[in-house]
Specification:
6-stranded antiparallel barrel; 47% strand
């Protein structure tokens, strides 16, 4: 999957909707990293994909903070 970045548009329980979708190469089962500025917030696994957006479920073991609309998502984070 090519590197891509998007924004969290909605949060509900342990799921988030983001502005990355099938048109960006996102597929069900892919993982996205969530962050705000330089703070890592967690990882989500994609459970639903549309051309311009997708929904991911937050993986509790990777959760490091509360995810909010406006947070950033990336297919890969730079080391």
């Amino acid at each position: 999957m090519p590197p891509a970045g998007g924004i969290v548009t909605a949060v509900a329980d342990d799921s988030i909707e983001v502005t990355l979708g099938g048109d960006d190469g996102v597929q069900m089962g892919h993982f996205l990293e969530v962050y705000r500025d330089d703070q890592y917030l967690g990882r989500v696994q994609v459970i639903s994909v549309k051309p311009d957006r997708s929904v991911g479920r937050v993986i509790r073991e990777f959760k490091r903070g509360d995810i909010q609309p406006g947070d950033r998502v990336a297919t890969r984070l730079r080391a």
